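Task 17 of the worksheet. Students: predict the tertiary structure of the chain below and write it out as structure tokens. Keep your answer in the requested format; marks are given for formatting as well as content.
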Amino acid sequence: MTFSFSVISTTGQRISISVLGPDNTVGDIKAKLEETEGIPQKMIMLVHSGRKLEDNATLEECNIHAGVTINMVLALRAGR
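Model answer:
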């Protein structure tokens, strides 16, 4: 069952993501964002309902379903 949801980038851009189902992982979504937005996966942090989403968690475990909006935050490394 394919469904879509939105990711809001740090600039406020709404990015539509389509997945095959709730068994996809947060890591799969980060891979799609890297492909479409050119941002390395290791720099992407996804947040839903005030909680950071772990890469190995499924969309079902994170309560991500059709029509949901997720926020993307860039994880910047601190300088030396």
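Marker's comment: The two ends are 47 Å apart (CA to CA). The chain has a mean pLDDT of 93.
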